[in-house]
Design goal:
The complex is a heterodimer. Chain A is of the alpha/beta class. Chain A has helices at 2-32, 36-46, 58-63, 66-73, 88-99, 138-146, 150-155, 165-170, 206-221, 243-251, 280-293, 295-298, and strands spanning 52-55, 77-79, 106-110, 225-230, 256-258, 272-274, 277-278. Chain B has 17 helices and no strands. The chains are: A alpha/beta, B mainly alpha.
Chain lengths: 300, 485
């Protein structure tokens, strides 16, 4: 028994040393990576100090051009959105991490049905992207707990970067252009053959909706001007899929900018990369339009 | 509950503590082990646990009955009881796995030739591990009848042999004699055995989580949407699939063997570097070894003896039937049947050329590496296996045909790349290939047991392996491919 205990203790000790050392190296690589996920998530959580932040999923990532807003308002701006159907579990943890460092003046939050509906393809696992920032804020840790991986992340630093070694190593030489301040333009034009509107036949997810409400409350408690926004789609469902966030916006008296069925964009294939994402030209036109519409709200 | 999950870890830690606390009393140890095995299996399906208990009891009594009549030299009744056991085993397999398939096939054939027949598919839940534990049950009665073993007097030991939780879901398909011998002595706490078992569990986890599940990301992305991918992508995914299967099932087997070893049981090996071979017979002697040896002993050899008058044609007939059974063992599907026949066909040149019963060894050069001509042959066998597994992976023959058609016609378009899956997979595959080459051709450099070397080096290796699993693994609990069989 004594022999086995010695074995276990030595293994545990060695594991601790290797894990923490490798974890430090991975953390360093993560902060220097230009791969889309690592750069976007790393910079948004741990570095940005910009006045205006855009938050949301891939539609936000591709649609809001920070340089347009900077030019319009004279305020610094960062697009903190990320792709991969990120939902409120991720956004709420991200907000916590940002607020643990500084308080932005404005947050424009692109709402997606994944943020409040029980979508089978976007659940608590999305909070896993916050793993490298475990311990940074209570909100982040709470989301990691909900995702069920808080203790493994606490015990192993390496585990926080699981599967991302190639992106960390090769990400130094490509991926995101940092001068675009988080915007990822899409080049190309939509092929409209066989397109159908995306439907969301899912019930409301109470935990997600509560987190969305807490998101609003935290922003208001910190004096951040928050607005909800919905970007245009090429083809739209007839469902009233934004009812819940719209009700929340009314309840908390925050503006809700709805461009979902905006005729300037809907049906204009030349402005879209795919049915839900604007291309570079579409995003620039959209950003100019939004910057004009949000002027009063931003300059309050 | 999968072996590489946190739930299993807590379960196993509890089992280990209690199990070795009662190490001096083998009866208590066995009863506790059996209770744990049944609890483990009941987590899959409680109703099927009842079926497992009933089958265990029936076969234990059959074993006693067969021996009773053998002692009385009543060969007819002993044979009858053995046949009854085999019929029950095959019957259970047939009912749960094949009834719908055969009935539907017969109905379709009847309609095809003009008779009206219909079959409403029964909604049957196939008990997980059925193909594995029914083979164990059948080998028990057959071995008693062949005089290889005596019937087990202790029902608890016998039930442990059937329900042993490390192996019940996906094998290895252990034989009764070695297991029961171990079950009938107390398993004492041996740190070295425990650590060796732990190393094998770790290696199995590495194979499953870092290689099989990583490759699965790429292979599934291509195969599940093959109609959108180029021929190059489909071929590349197909070439990765044998390695994925090897890492998946080999990984599970390593974990099962490691967990069993930690409980003091040495169970049969299931894989032995299956791609370092020169012909299809070599491949099957190293791939899913416990299934191959089971079918060799209980199907091929009796058939070969029965048809020996036919000469080489008798052997061909026996091997074709044997390989068809191997194919069908995986499930009720025409693709599995064809998979078996396809492998059987590759045996024919060996038999005609007289190479079937010869063990062909890979010759090495002065540095210990295999000679070039043998490397080409190994690559050839890998390609043969790959084609077979394309059939195996397809849901229907139609799908297989469409995939082949797409490969033949869609050469435009580049290789689908998933940098993360490909690079992570490549790093871990390098580790697997390195270890396999070392064990195959440079065994003296193998990592020795903990007591044989400097303590720090052994422990350092274990710590590095754990870190590697955490860094490269996929942790969203993919099921093992062989659980479905």
């Amino acid at each position: 028994m004594k022999k086995l205990l010695i074995h276990i203790l030595i293994i545990a000790g060695l594991f601790f040393v290797i894990d923490r050392t490798a974890g430090l190296i991975l953390k360093q690589l993560y902060s220097q990576s230009n791969a889309t996920d690592e750069y976007k998530i790393g910079y948004a959580n741990a570095e940005t100090t910009d006045d205006i932040l855009f938050m949301g999923s891939s539609r936000c990532l591709h649609h809001f051009v920070p340089s347009v807003f900077k030019e319009a308002y004279g305020m610094t701006c960062f697009n903190a959105a990320d792709w991969g159907i990120k939902n409120i579990y991720y956004h709420y943890g991200l907000l916590g991490n940002i607020l643990s460092r500084y308080t932005p003046k404005v947050i424009v939050f692109e709402i997606h049905p994944c943020d409040y509906l029980d979508t089978p393809y976007s659940g608590t696992e999305r909070a896993g992207s916050l793993a490298p920032f475990c311990g940074m804020s209570n909100e982040c840790d709470e989301m990691l707990r909900i995702s069920g991986n808080y203790w493994p992340y606490k015990l192993s630093t390496v585990y926080r970067y699981t599967g991302s070694l190639p992106a960390l190593v090769f990400g130094r030489w490509g991926g995101m252009d940092r001068s675009l301040k988080g915007w990822k333009p899409l080049d190309g034009q939509l092929d409209t053959i066989g397109l159908k509107a995306e439907e969301f036949p899912f019930p409301v997810h109470q935990e997600k909706l509560q987190l969305l409400e807490r998101f609003i409350q935290e922003c208001q408690a910190k004096g951040i001007r928050l607005s909800f926004i919905v970007s245009p789609m090429y083809i739209c469902t007839k469902q009233d899929i934004y009812k819940e966030p719209c009700d929340l916006a009314k309840q908390y008296n925050i503006p809700f900018f709805d461009y979902f069925r905006d005729p300037q964009f809907m049906g204009h294939a030349e402005l879209f990369y795919d049915y839900g994402h604007l291309n570079r030209e579409g995003a620039t036109i959209f950003s100019k339009k939004v910057s004009n519409d949000l002027k009063d709200f931003i300059k309050q | 509950m999968v072996v590489n999950s946190l739930t299993f870890l807590w379960f196993f830690l509890f089992v280990m503590v209690v199990y070795y606390l009662c190490q001096t009393k083998k009866e208590i140890q066995n009863v506790f082990l059996l209770a744990c095995s049944y609890w483990f299996y009941s987590q899959v399906d409680i109703k099927m646990t009842i079926l497992l208990v009933i089958l265990t009891l029936v076969f234990w009594l059959l074993g006693k009955g067969i021996y009773h009549f053998m002692e009385k030299e009543d060969e007819q009744k002993a044979g009858l009881m053995t046949s009854l056991g085999v019929t029950i085993g095959i019957g259970a397999l047939f009912y749960f796995k094949y009834l719908n398939f055969f009935a539907e096939s017969i109905a379709s054939f009847a309609s095809f030739i003009g008779f009206h027949m219909s079959w409403t598919a029964l909604h049957l839940v196939v008990p997980i591990g059925l193909s594995f534990f029914t083979f164990k049950l059948m080998s028990y009665v057959l071995d008693i009848h062949h005089g290889k073993i005596l019937p087990e007097g202790n029902i608890v030991s016998f039930a442990n042999y059937i329900a042993f939780f490390p192996t019940i879901l996906s094998g290895p398909i252990d034989r009764p004699k070695p297991f029961l011998m171990q079950a009938n002595v107390a398993r004492l706490f041996k740190p070295d055995q425990l650590m060796t078992g732990f190393r094998r569990v770790l290696w199995g986890m590495f194979l499953k989580m870092c290689i099989a599940d990583r490759l699965d990301i790429y292979v599934s992305a291509v195969w599940n949407n093959y109609e959108h991918h180029s021929a190059i992508s489909i071929l590349f995914a197909s070439l990765l699939y044998p390695l994925q299967m090897y890492a998946d099932f080999g990984g599970y087997s390593e974990m099962a063997i490691g967990v069993a070893l930690m409980l003091g049981f040495k169970v049969a090996e299931n894989f032995k570097r299956p791609f370092f071979v020169l012909d299809i017979a070599g491949y099957w002697s190293r791939w899913h070894m416990t299934l191959t040896s089971w079918l060799t002993d209980y199907v091929f050899l009796p058939l070969n003896i029965k048809f020996r008058d036919w000469g080489v044609y008798g052997t061909i007939f026996a091997i074709m039937l044997n390989m068809t059974f191997i194919g069908l063992w995986h499930g009720a599907n025409w693709t599995f049947l064809l998979f078996g026949i396809y492998h059987g066909l590759w045996y024919i040149p060996l038999m005609v050329g007289g190479g079937f019963f010869k063990k062909r060894k890979i010759k090495v050069n002065a540095h210990g590496w295999p000679k070039q001509e043998y490397v080409w042959k190994m690559i050839g066998i890998y390609l043969v296996v790959t084609f077979g597994l394309m059939l195996f992976h397809s849901a229907t023959i139609g799908e297989f045909w469409h995939i082949c058609e797409r490969i033949a016609t869609h050469w435009r378009g580049g290789l689908f790349t998933d940098l993360s899956a490909m690079v992570n997979g490549a790093i871990c595959l390098t580790a697997l290939i390195y270890v396999d080459i070392q064990e195959e051709w440079f065994p003296k450099y193998q990592l020795p047991l903990p007591h044989q070397i400097n303590r720090w080096r052994w422990e350092l290796t274990v710590a590095v392996e754990i870190v590697a699993i955490l860094l490269f693994g996929v942790f969203d609990n993919n099921q093992f491919i062989y659980f479905q069989f």
